[in-house]
Amino acid sequence: MEHGAQGRARTEPFGYNSGPLESPRSYRRRRLVKRKAIPPASLELLLFPASDTEYVHFEDALDHPFEADARLFSLVNAWWLADAALLAYWDATRAAPIWKRAGLEFEFLPSGGTQCHLAWSDRFVIVAFRGTQPNELRDLLTIFRVEHADWEFGGGKVHSGFRDAHHDIWPLVQQCLDRLGRGGRTIWFTGHSLGAALATLSMDRFEGPANLYTIGSPPVGDRRFAKGFDQRHAGRSFRYVNHRDIIVWLPGVLKFLVGSYRHVQERKYINAQGKCSGNPSLGEWPALLRVLLTGGRVARRLKAVVDHTPRRYAAGIWNAYIDT
């Protein structure tokens, strides 16, 4: 499906919440649903998330509507956006019916080695960038390029590979947002891994109010960029970290290799038990440090790698939502 081809779906709203308040009936429904199993350690699920046919995206979305006008952090929105980041790995033909089942219209935006899913109702727009494809050389080069480049839209310096990939896809995204944003829809950026970095830069470049929920994001820019970003988007930017995800933690340790990169805020941490908090507990820091500083055993390093799996994020965030 080329740019402009759309997967049409039901356009009438079907109960989207207007904010963080929840009805007693909705609360009871949420308490009755089941937790999602955290998938076992699997390099296949990490490297080829589009081949995962077992996970059900936006399951029971009617009973767990997106909070289009939420002004504070929203766990149900975090689940929607984690599922969107996972679905962004899929091609347009396979993804269109899933977006339709969620009650959204859909447009697929490809540009070179980068791609983006736009999905919308009459109340909101989700912009989900595809993450790293290890079988595509272009994506690997983007991740492992470590030069800084000036960020002309907010100051500071950012990862040059992320900036170049963003510049490739942004004109198409901007064109669609100019059209869809006229109806007063709220804008929500998301992505996993490389897609999270692209979502972060897009949030900063977009001229208007928007929201950002990233999944397993590497650090995008230097200290000046991160500080300015946090000031510009305070209360509207949230960054999920799954336990020992090495893509998130390692750059902060290997400063001699990747330079002075800094993460943006606000961190949401998923611990080994699948519980969400702002930071690791004191008891979890030793395990993190063993993986990152000493290398630990091969098994520990493998766990740190597979914690980057997007399905693990999506399942963990869903479980945190229904447990609250």
Task: Describe the protein.
The protein has helices spanning 24-32, 43-47, 75-87, 92-101, 137-144, 160-180, 194-205, 223-232, 246-253, 255-258, 285-294, 298-306, 310-323; strands spanning 6-7, 105-111, 114-120, 124-129, 148-150, 157-159, 186-192, 211-215, 221-222, 237-242, 261-262, 267-270, 276-277. The protein is globular and about 50 Å long. Helix 9 crosses helix 11 (285-294). It has one domain: Rossmann fold, CATH 3.40.50.1820. A hairpin with a 6-residue loop joins strand 5 and strand 6 (157-159). It contains 13 helices and 13 strands. It has 324 residues and is an alpha/beta fold.
DSSP strand content: 15-25%
Mean pLDDT: 82
Q: What oligomeric state is this?
A: single chain
CATH superfamily annotation: Alpha/Beta hydrolase fold, catalytic domain
From the alpha carbons, calculate the radius of gyration and give it in angstroms.
18 Å
Number of helices: 13
Instruction: List the domain count as a whole number.
Output: 1
CATH class descriptor: Alpha Beta
Overall form: globular
Helix and strand element order: EHHHHEEEHEEHEHEEHEHHEEEHHH
CATH 2nd-level architecture: 3-Layer(aba) Sandwich
> Can you tell me the CATH topology?
Rossmann fold
